[in-house]
Specification:
The structure is a homodimer of 440-residue chains.
Chain A lengths: L14 H20 L3 E2 L5 E3 H5 L10 E5 L9 E3 L4 H10 L8 E10 L11 E10 L12 H11 L5 E7 H10 L5 H8 L2 H4 L1 H10 L4 H11 L2 E2 L3 H7 L6 H20 L4 E4 L12 E7 L9 E11 L4 E10 H10 L3 E3 L7 E3 L7 H13 L4 E3 L6 H11 L3 E4 L6 E4 L5 E3 L9 H4 L3 E3 L3
Parallel strand pairs in A: 1-5, 7-9, 14-15, 14-16
Antiparallel strand pairs in A: 2-4, 3-4, 5-6, 6-12, 7-10, 8-9, 10-11, 11-12, 13-19, 16-17, 17-18
């Protein structure tokens, strides 16, 4: 029998950590639904051929899947490595029955065989939202996603956050306007700014054939950052003109203005954001935790003019992906998140002796009917031992069935009061486990 | 590029079906938590060696997993085919930090490469609860699980259900008491009663060396069924005695009596229930939908004295597993479940013209802050077209921003009234999509 051991990159949580994860997932789902996104789930596997056609050096990170009993050695299927590839396939497969524009959210695990490190896992949960339409998709959708991200993060116990946005048309138009021909390569190089710094990026740009003036212009553009539409004037001052640049400035200004009205202080136009992926064509999004910028981006996304295409019809989309396992891994790693208990029970119903267990079960049933999570003590031990059972799990209340009227004890304060299972209710703050940032 | 097509046995739902699935999963989770079970999730893969040591001809159904880039051809990992094997491993791995008795629930996908058919899938979701303890586990836990199952199914829109229970000690003791030596083989044969009938089972038992009298006794025992403890007297009348039989009768009577008090009419002792799996050692459970007995059991479980063991310590447990994808597959297949809409939105906020989109977004934000899921119309089309957008998705209300005071229209009745986004609230029945059995 194989040794019992963790598998690197496949995190598993303790029951208390799982309560934290569930709270995050509940917040995400509730917020996505408030914004009218419908849930779908896709199968975990896709044809290897579909997965490996996505570029991005994804091939070598794909986990192949095949029945051990099947002859041959080649895997026909692979575990999906993100939720975008399966979503694009789902849209094409169900185009005849879906209502477009289609607003969907998807919260599922993905698998990627890359080298595990803090915040990067081989099995991980992502929470994606996208809007996809047929043929064309209005730019106003691009202004909507920061509002959703902000609503989610405002409910997380993670402190302050900042959404950084840019626009690919703005970058492409600017680059074209100064005579750069390989726009994609320039994008990918500028995207390294945070990692390698301005001097190294400048050297790379020159190496790739840009003139000193072009490289300087790229870097000056990348330095522009503003929480309002003043970035438009700053770009104009660089003296570059191009129709695509105009479109990008207009769209990005709309995103910034909607954000200023609805989520003041939570979004900046940051013109160095490029996001490496080829398929973005409009607004691009990143999100950081303030004070934890070294953790990098925990939400990514953007607009793509061809999420999917069947050759005849093209489906443009815009979306973002929240790296749930990444956020939790970083916060757990920093010891920053805790749940007030490791079980859902708010009450332990004590058992006086085993012959009266049915009475304790009846009390638990009455509490559950009223929405109060509880459990019955495993044994009619001395009360001190039953209280320790509750204490070790963080269950705040122990219920004592008594012939002269039940009593309930708050084991944190020691307060004990008369209580009726048909009437008693815990304080709202105790009903569910509390999830908080350590030190809060 | 591979053809876009479903993969047999890997079901995917429409957004409306997914709303039904979510409702089922929400009911299950809420009920499990009311009963004090804590959630865990385990990684999707286990060492192949651990999976394939579970007997049950499981080997050939295992999906092996390996990085396409890794050399060699043998898969070291496999996707788990149930939640019991990973849970047992999780208990051993975390025995030092878990609090025992440990009440856990786990709602996850599993994968099994068997031949797909209605109600049987290759990727499927199960919802498991178990209590596991160290060394010994009191029998009273066996009486608890039917209460949880009944609480779950009472909240499902699936009509009436019946929980059938038996006890392995009762069967083993009875068989031993009439001189049968191969108890496991007899259990497995009697377990075929529903499939092949009494005559065929009798023939098989004789073939396996039982005498006429032994076979008849087995079949008479299997005919006993009672909603109360009267089954004890019926068994006694068969004149068999054995200490293990006594224990089984006592434990099963306790299960039946607790059920009679808490969930009258929902549980019967059915002495033909055996459940084929070797590892059950006490109470065994099955559940059927009344009127849909041909669908077989949709919940299975039981008591096992050795859920896990590290050689020194043994961890006995008791648990049940709800076949979520199985239930949904059968009910969807029969066309019996529907959601009232395909999106979470209860309101579509109309847009008068694109220059006033920000006003519509502000209304949506106000509604969301008050917990009302909504979305803004994609285009400032004619109102008829915007209403059709809502209608096609089943969104019941359309909100019209107006300079002289907003109005909201119930597009089912045509009623239109003045409304303030800071005050208006939909009827409780409209806030979430309704999930109902067709014809209800």
């Amino acid at each position: 029998m194989s040794k019992i051991a963790p598998i690197s990159g496949f995190p598993e949580y303790s029951p208390a950590q799982r309560i934290v994860e569930q709270r995050f997932l509940d917040v995400i789902r509730e917020t996505f639904e408030l914004h009218g996104f419908a849930s779908i789930e896709t199968r975990s596997i896709e044809p290897v051929e579909r997965l490996s056609s996505q570029g991005e050096d994804a091939d070598k990170e794909i986990y192949g899947v095949r029945r051990l009993a099947d002859p041959g050695t080649d895997a026909k299927w692979g575990l999906h490595f993100d939720l975008t590839v399966p979503f694009a396939r789902y849209v094409l497969e169900n185009a005849g029955t879906l209502e477009f524009p289609f607003r969907r959210y998807q919260i599922q695990k993905s698998w990627r065989g890359e080298r595990p490190q803090e915040g990067r896992y081989r099995e991980f949960t992502q929470a994606d939202i996208d809007v996809v339409d047929v043929g064309t998709l209005p730019a106003h959708y691009e202004a909507e996603f920061p509002l959703v991200i902000a609503d989610v993060f405002a409910k997380f116990p993670v402190g302050d956050f900042i959404i950084r946005v840019n626009n690919r048309k703005l970058l492409s138009g600017f680059y074209a306007g100064i005579g750069i021909t390989d726009v994609q390569e320039t994008l990918r190089t500028v995207d390294k700014l945070d990692k390698i710094g301005a001097e190294a990026v400048r050297a790379l740009l020159l190496e790739r054939g840009l003139t000193d003036e072009q490289a300087d212009a790229c870097l000056r553009l990348a330095q522009i950052e503003a929480a309002d539409a003043s970035f438009v004037e700053q770009v104009r001052l660089l003296g570059v003109t191009h129709p695509l640049l105009d479109e990008g400035l207009r769209d990005l200004a709309q995103v910034v203005e909607i954000a200023a009205a609805h989520i003041p202080g939570k979004l900046v136009a940051d013109l160095k954001i490029a996001r490496g992926l080829d398929y973005y064509t409009g607004t691009v999004y990143e999100t950081q935790l303030v004070g934890r910028e070294e953790w990098g981006t925990i939400v990514g996304g953007g607009r793509y003019d061809a999420l999917a295409s069947d050759g005849k019809t093209t489906y443009p989309g815009v979306g973002v992906s929240i790296g749930v396992t990444r956020i939790l891994g970083l916060l757990f790693g920093a010891g920053e998140l805790a749940a007030s208990r490791s079980v859902p029970s708010v009450v332990l119903v004590a058992v006086n002796d085993e012959s009266h267990r049915a009475g304790s079960t009846a009390i638990a049933t009455a509490l559950r009917r009223r929405g109060i999570p509880c459990e019955v003590a495993p044994k009619a031990d001395k009360f001190g031992k039953q209280i320790r059972y509750a204490d070790r799990r963080g269950i705040p209340y122990v219920w004592f069935p008594r012939d002269d009227g039940d009593q309930v004890k708050d084991i944190r304060s020691g307060d004990q009061v008369a209580a009726d299972p048909a009437v008693w209710f815990p304080p709202a703050g105790d009903l569910r486990p509390q999830v908080s940032r350590s030190g809060d």
